[in-house]
Structures are given as structure tokens and as C-alpha cells.
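Title: Prediction job returns without error message
Component: structure pipeline
Severity: low
Priority: P3
Assignee: unassigned

Description:
Job completed but the reporter wants confirmation the result is attached to the right record. Sequence as submitted:
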Amino acid sequence: MARSTQDSSIPTAAGVGPRPSGRRGVHGSPSHRWWVLVVIALAQLMVVLDATIVNIALPSAQQDLGFSDGNRQWIVTAYALAFGSLLLLGGRLADLIGRKTTFLVGLIGFAVASAVGGAAPSFEVLVLARALQGLFGALLAPAALSLLTTTFTDPKERAKAFGIYGAVAGAGGAVGLLLGGLLTEYLDWRWCLYVNLFFALIAFLGGLRLLQSGAPADRPDLDLPGAVLVSGGLFCIVYGFSNAERHQWGATSTWGFLVAGCLLLIAFVAWQRRARHPLLPMRVVGDRDRGASFLAMFISGAGMFGVFLFLTYYLQRTLSYSPVMTGLAFLPMVAVIMITSVTTTNSLVPRFGAKPIVPTGMLLAAGAMAWLTALDGHSTYAAHVMPPLLIMGLGLGAIFATGMNLATAGVEARDAGVASAMVNTSQQVGGSIGTSLLNTLATSAAAHYASSRRPSPGVAAQAQLHSYSVAYWWSAAFFAVGFLVTLVLYRRGVPKSLSDPSPESASVPM
């Protein structure tokens, strides 16, 4: 990337735009791009940790607001439904109306929804607030990643930026568990929502100061039929799998929504092939490396919840950890994710490409999940829990940063938002499916184990351990499939899009 301060026509960071002639300052400073990264990473952290931070607060919220166990899951599902189903629409809006505008609107809306949820006087208001968080998160997340994509176009800088961003995305769930435990234990469950106001305020002020306003000069029409089809399809898929947690797979409310979702998504793909201004141009998903990256994010999103969900249960119910201790237990994995993310994108991918990196990450993650199946009622953290967590951190760090980088590398500026949305959609829908599927399998395994034995506290405890083991094995299977898929799909060598970024993405209105 050019560093000259003399030629005002040379584009600077895409999140900043060209510097006016004869004017120095924050928009023209090369170091300013790294402050943009801080703002983007902070916003992404807020969105990612909100998927888990509320989980630890649920028992306290339930006691305070008096809702039933059957309704409890809606606090989580409302966020997942709105976020997962609207991400592609949010990504396209970022391309059409400008990424800075979409980013700032998403921040404001997310903050307001968090404030409403924190002050919620009833269950219904809390569910509404969580749905609004998901809606504005669907604007915020793809805008943040597309800002990163268009801001860092120099290969070396891009590698560093995506390493940091991938570390935040991969570690956000664990950070949410720790922060949720601290806030619930020492303050109040409502602070698990109020804390977003601090994140959003800092990110908003930074974005307002550091990002350049503007919108595409040649703005195509929004593909409304496509938006309705894909949003409806993703909603039905996520809702159908969520229903599987509470009902039989044979229930109409489960398979009916799943079938409807699949039909809507098929119709969406057919429409995109003939739409004049498609919501998701086929050129975005047609690239082999990019398609492999979307699948990698989907599969890893499904598999990693075996760690966050069931290991959390194990630590709290079997080892009797407090919420804070549970969050602290994940910190070594978070540290390894961060180190691995930066290392792979800066040193390994530029030298070897993604083909050996992501499949190796999948294999490490599968091995870590298989290792966790050995946990029992007498296991200790240092000897039995932390080692597979460290291996898991190595695997996820290799997958996330590399996958996010290649999923958006070489994308034309006009498609950066929707490509970024596909990354988030893949991970979010994968996570929703993985959580529902693993929870259903684990519940069935526990019931089957207990039904063939005389009821007793010991049998109940063993049934829970057996259910966790089943979930870990299935998570290992997800990652094993991910290993095969990424090994076959990724091209050999260093992708041209990383060593020779598209000039179109070097300067784009935000």
C-alpha cells in the first residue's frame, strides 16, 4: 500500500477514503487504520459475546422475572432467529447505503435494545429486546467485517488485521461466559445487557471520528424478493432446529419448518440466478477457496458449541465450578486462539496457503473433542480439561482467522458487505444448528442411559456424563467432516487474492 503523503489521489485505507488535497490528519495517517481495527474488533466482540453472555444470566433473570423453564430458551432463540435470518440482508444494505452508516446505525440500535433488555420489567419485553439485538447485530456484524476487508488491502497488513479479528471472533464466546459470570455474580444479571452500552459508546465515537462517510455512486436496487426468500428460509431453518430441542424430530413444528426453510433457500438460489441486482451474487460464492471458507465457518460454528455448551455444564454441575470459575477455565483456550490466529495469518498462510492450515485445524479440533469424551466425575482441570482445551484453541485459531480472510479476499468492493455477511451467516446458522442438534442428541442419550438402570443420584450423574460424551463425539464428527471438506475444496498454494488483492477493493465509499 502506498505510504506517500504527497499525492492526495492515492487511496488510503478503504474505511477512510481518499485524503483531501493538502490536508493531513487522522484520515491520512497509515497508523489510523489500526485504530479502525480497534473499533471494528470492539463491535465484533460485542456481537459475538452477546450470544453467550446472557446464558449464565438466565437463572437469575428467570427468578427475577418469573418465567417458566419452557420459555427460558426464547431469551437465546429470539437473538439467534433475528441475527441469523437477517445477516445477508444487513450485509447487502451495507453495500448499498454505505458501511459507515450501517455500522453506526447498528451500534446505536444494539445499544438501545440492550438498554431496553437490561431494564425489562417482564419476560415479553426481554424477548423483544433480544430480538432487536439480533436485528441490529445483523446490520453491525457484516458492516464491521466488510470495513475490515476494504480497509486492509496490503497483504501483510491484511494478514495481521485478520489474525486479530479472527482471534476476537473465535474467543468472543468464551469471553462472554467469563464476563457474564463476573457481572451476574458481583453485580446483577441486568448488567449482562447494560455492559453493551459501554462497548457501543466507545465503538460509536471511534467510528464517527475515524470512518469516512459516503455511499456507492452507482447504487443498484435492493433485491426485495431475494431478501424475503433468504430471510424466511434462514428463519425457518434456525427455528426448526430450535424446535427440535423441545419437541420430537417427527413433530410438524420441527420438520415442517425445516422443509419450508430448505424450499425457500432453493427458491432463493434460483431467483439469484435471474435477478437483475441479486442480493447474493453467485460470483461471491462461486470461488472455490471462498466456498470452502464459508463451509469451514459453518462446520466449525456447529462443532465448537460442544465445547462452550456442554463443557460449561460439566464444569458447573459435575466439578461444581462457580460461573466466574467456569469463565476463567476457558481463558487458556482464548489465549491460544489469539496467538494461533495471528501466527497462521501472518506466517503460515502467506507461505503455504489455506489447504494445509484449515484442515489441520479441523483435525486438531476433532482430536480435542474426542479427548474430552474421557472426562468423568473424578477428572481434574489441570490434568484432564485444560490439555484438550489448548488443542482446541490451536484448531479454532487456525480455522477462524484463515477462513474469514479467504472468505473475503479478492471480493469486489461492491460485494464486500454481502461476502462478509455470508461469513457471519455461515457461523451463526452453523452454531444454531449445532447447538440444537447436539442438545437433542445429548438429552436423548441421557434419557436412554437412565431408562435401563434403577433411578439413583449416581445413575443421574452418570447419565449426564454420558450425554456430554455423546455430544463431544458428535462435535468430533463435525470437525472430521470439516477436515475432509476443506482438504478437498481448498486449492493448493497461496491464493492469488491474498498476494495480489483486487484493486477495486482499495478505495470504496463507506
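Comment from assignee: result matches the submitted record. The mean pLDDT is 80.
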